[in-house]
């Protein structure tokens, strides 16, 4: 098998694993910085996890797999560039919102960013997978507690929304989230 055919084979296998084979659309990964977005994108694009340097902000991580493009964007702290991500979101078909479930101190900020974003009527109907990431850490909050903190029940009326406990580090949980999003693409 040529290198190209081999890479294509790997890409197709990954797409099927994620339930995104033959799907088209843009999946946007959002969340506060340090929640694991770049690590997840890197894992999807390279099939492995490496320690990453914090990126300059604003910064867009992006890659394409079959008919699906993935883009990541850090929310929070940058009021001045807010208009940029509203623009950025306008062509998204699915949203992955990542939360560092071990960072209790920033949950309120994560909640604020999530509600603020989803108050935009342009995003009505766009499916949102909320990833409770870093579940491998001993001080990760349990899902029920995070659920209440993020007030997800209130956001459910205007879109399909579902939560997933994940550890990008261990490779757990996120394939389910993509499979679920794939059913809406
Ligand atoms: N323990 C643990 N650490 C993670 C996990 N996912 C990401 N990290 C670490 O969290 C830090 C921030 O990740 P990064 O992907 O840069 O977050 P981003 O700012 O949202 O892009 C990095 O040191 C990652 O190695 C996870 O599931 N478990
Ligand atoms: Mg990043």
From TrEMBL:
Designated name of the protein: Sar1B, Ras superfamily GTPase
Entry keyword Protein transport: yes
Compartments where found: Endoplasmic reticulum; Golgi apparatus
Matches recorded under PROSITE patterns: ARF, SAR1
Binding site for Mg(2+): 33, 38, 55
Any Gene Ontology CC annotation: endoplasmic reticulum
Family according to the record: Belongs to the small GTPase superfamily. SAR1 family.
Keyword Protein biosynthesis carried by entry: no
SMART domains: ARF, SAR
One Pfam short name: Arf
Keywords recorded for this protein, A-Z: Endoplasmic reticulum, ER-Golgi transport, Golgi apparatus, GTP-binding, Magnesium, Metal-binding, Nucleotide-binding, Protein transport, Transport
Annotated source species: Ectocarpus siliculosus (Brown alga)
């Amino acid at each position: 098998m040529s290198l190209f055919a081999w890479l294509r084979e790997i890409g197709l296998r990954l797409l099927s694993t994620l339930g995104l084979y033959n799907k088209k659309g843009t999946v946007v990964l959002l969340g506060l910085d340090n929640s694991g977005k770049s690590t997840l994108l890197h894992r999807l694009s390279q099939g492995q996890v490496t320690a990453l340097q914090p990126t300059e902000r604003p910064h867009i991580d992006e890659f394409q797999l079959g008919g699906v493009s993935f883009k990541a964007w850090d929310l929070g702290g940058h009021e001045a560039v807010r208009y940029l991500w509203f623009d950025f979101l306008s062509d998204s078909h699915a949203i992955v919102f990542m939360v560092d479930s071990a960072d209790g101190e920033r949950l309120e900020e994560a909640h604020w960013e999530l509600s603020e974003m989803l108050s935009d009527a342009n995003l009505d109907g766009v499916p949102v997978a909320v990833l409770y990431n870093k579940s491998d850490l001993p001080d990760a909050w349990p899902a029920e507690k995070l659920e209440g903190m993020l007030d997800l029940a209130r956001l459910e009326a205007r879109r399909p929304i579902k939560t997933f406990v994940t550890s990008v580090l261990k490779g757990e949980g996120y394939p389910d989230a993509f499979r679920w999003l794939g059913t809406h693409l």
